[in-house]
């Protein structure tokens, strides 16, 4: 007797359908109706499961990218001396994603959402700046969160750039980015 593979739930089908559509169509041209049709779901399914197209794409980003950082960052410790290792752990998946067409899609979506400040509620701790603040204990929590936000903005902006998609990031550009981010995160600040 041959076992059938389990059928994906509606939420997972919607995410997979959105991902496939976004591979070939610009974000603005992918409609909620098209996602529901591609997933074989009720026309209201996106709104039921996510609330909006933006929240659906936010869930797609988290589902696909969150696991890439979760393991490496789960054991991250705080303090100025640990920042270079944490930055390396953050950058490694970006380099890997930039080398793959589907990964580049995820990076483009991430750049669009983060840099465009789209309203979506991030669920995973690695997508919330308050989770990062304790890694810079020598700074006030608000200042640490702000620095992490700036660091991620810069990293995401660089990896989401069209020239990176076409040619990848050179080793010297990656080294310069790493050095700049580490320097920004470890620069002296107001005392906590």
How would you explain this protein's 3D organization?
With 192 residues, this protein is mainly alpha-helical. The chain folds into 2 domains: 51 residues, Arc Repressor Mutant, subunit A; 125 residues. The protein is 66% helix and 0% strand. It contains 10 helices and no strands. Helix 6 crosses helix 8 and helix 8 packs antiparallel against helix 10. The longest helix has 22 residues. The radius of gyration is 18 Å and the shape is globular. The protein starts with 9 loop residues before the first helix and ends in a 6-residue tail after the last helix. The N terminus is likely disordered. Keywords: DNA-binding. Pfam families: TetR_N (PF00440). InterPro entries: Homeodomain-like_sf (IPR009057), HTH-type_TetR-like_transc_reg (IPR050109), HTH_TetR (IPR001647). This is TetR/AcrR family transcriptional regulator. It comes from Nocardia tengchongensis.
């Amino acid at each position: 007797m041959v076992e059938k593979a389990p059928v994906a739930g509606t939420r997972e089908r919607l995410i997979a359908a959105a991902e496939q559509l976004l591979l070939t169509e610009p974000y603005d041209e992918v409609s909620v109706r098209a996602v529901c049709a591609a997933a074989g779901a009720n026309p209201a399914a996106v709104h039921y499961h996510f609330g909006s197209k933006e929240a659906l794409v936010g869930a797609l980003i988290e589902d696909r990218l969150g696991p890439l950082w979760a393991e490496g960052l789960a054991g991250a410790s705080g303090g100025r001396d640990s920042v270079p290792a944490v930055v390396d752990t953050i950058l490694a998946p970006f380099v890997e994603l930039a080398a793959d067409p589907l990964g580049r899609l995820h990076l483009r979506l991430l750049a669009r959402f983060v840099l465009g400040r789209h309203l979506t509620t991030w669920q995973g701790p690695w997508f919330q700046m308050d989770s990062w603040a304790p890694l810079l204990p020598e700074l006030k929590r608000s200042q640490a969160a702000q620095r992490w936000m700036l660091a991620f903005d810069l990293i995401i902006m660089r990896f989401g750039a069209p020239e990176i998609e076409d040619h990848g990031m050179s080793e010297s550009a990656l080294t310069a980015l790493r050095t700049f981010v580490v320097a920004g995160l470890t620069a002296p600040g107001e005392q906590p």
